[in-house]
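Quick review question:
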């Protein structure tokens, strides 16, 4: 009986999610009209160099507005007009009003530099355990050693987590749903990563339902990132329910071009929300001209080398902490000097 009731609940839950998202999803015409007003979108995933993760970025004790202002100034000088920024629900649970005030402060700084923001709610990448307070120091030479998932596997062990997440998403969306400093809401980064696969589907469906119930003026999306068969159901749901199509690609230009051609069939604007890994030949000099020619939004991973250690590759730690000759991600050092002056000049030429 318990199993039968569970199955009834799941079927009814899935049906209600599909109805909610279908009713609130933008038409292709509306998505194209919105995209045409934005101009070509170009920018980075942004984490200030003084923060190791989402929590350190927005906790009151470490909310470093001076660094944020300085580094976004470099982004403006490059010609960037959008940055992708991750949030974490623990910040909201600790201090709802204070967290939203800091988001407003961040948006004030970014808009001063003529940069819109793409906020990310949930994430299945890297470390499973997150906590408030002092965050860990970076592990020498290790890529993203302190990055944390949200919510991680606590959603399976703490029954009230889903209610908290719903309240969090709806409150933030309600507060900023008409804020034109926000470009787009990225509801879930890389669902299914860290071997979660289909376990991430219920939360993915729920966050689209919650966003549909609030229906912000900005578009909503969740980017496809893995074309493996194990992700086919996740990909289908993401693509069928996103107002605009977002995706990740860290591969060579031929592969990236194929991804664009494949996603064009959905007849919606395309924004690449993660690319650029030099070791993988996902280079600014190759990918950025392609994205500009195709009018695809271009948001690379990494801006200023800092506590996230993303100059090191995902799978190649350097225990001695020596700066690699070829950075994996990032454009600038903390002092504002670029990894490559030629690369910087190329980005400026294309983006300005």
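Suggested answer, residue by residue:
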């Amino acid at each position: 009986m318990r199993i039968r009731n569970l199955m009834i609940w799941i079927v009814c839950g899935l049906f209600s999610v599909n109805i909610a998202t279908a009713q609130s999803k933008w038409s292709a015409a509306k998505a194209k009209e919105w995209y045409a007003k934005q101009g070509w979108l170009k920018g980075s995933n942004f984490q200030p160099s003084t923060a190791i993760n989402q929590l350190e970025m927005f906790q009151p004790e470490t909310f470093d507005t001076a660094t944020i202002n300085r580094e976004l100034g470099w982004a403006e000088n490059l010609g960037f007009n959008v940055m992708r920024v991750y949030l974490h629900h623990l910040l909201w649970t600790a201090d709802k009003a204070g967290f939203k005030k800091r988001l407003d402060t961040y948006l004030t700084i970014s808009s001063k530099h003529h940069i819109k923001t793409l906020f990310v709610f949930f994430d299945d990448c890297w470390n499973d355990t997150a906590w408030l307070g002092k965050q860990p120091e970076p592990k020498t030479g290790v890529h993203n050693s302190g990055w944390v998932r949200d919510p991680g596997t606590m959603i399976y062990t703490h029954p009230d987590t889903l209610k908290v997440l719903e309240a969090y998403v709806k409150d933030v969306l309600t507060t900023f749903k008409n804020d034109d400093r926000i470009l787009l809401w990225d509801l879930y980064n890389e669902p299914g990563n860290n071997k979660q696969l289909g376990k991430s589907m219920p939360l993915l469906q729920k966050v689209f339902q919650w966003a549909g119930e609030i229906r912000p003026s900005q578009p909503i999306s969740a980017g496809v990132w893995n074309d493996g068969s194990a992700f086919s159901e996740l990909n289908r749901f993401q693509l069928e329910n996103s107002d605009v199509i977002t995706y990740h690609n860290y591969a060579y230009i031929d592969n990236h071009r194929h991804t664009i051609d494949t996603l064009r069939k959905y007849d919606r604007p395309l924004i690449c929300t993660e690319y650029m890994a030099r070791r993988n030949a996902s280079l600014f000099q190759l990918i950025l001209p392609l994205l500009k020619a195709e009018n695809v939004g271009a948001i690379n991973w990494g801006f200023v080398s800092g506590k996230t250690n993303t100059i090191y590759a995902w799978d190649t730690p350097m225990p001695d902490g020596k700066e690699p000759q070829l950075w994996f991600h990032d454009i600038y050092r903390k002092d504002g000097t670029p990894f490559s002056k030629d690369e910087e000049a190329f980005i400026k030429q294309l983006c300005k």
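Why it works: DSSP finds 13 helices and eight strands in the chain. The first helix runs from residue 2 to 24.
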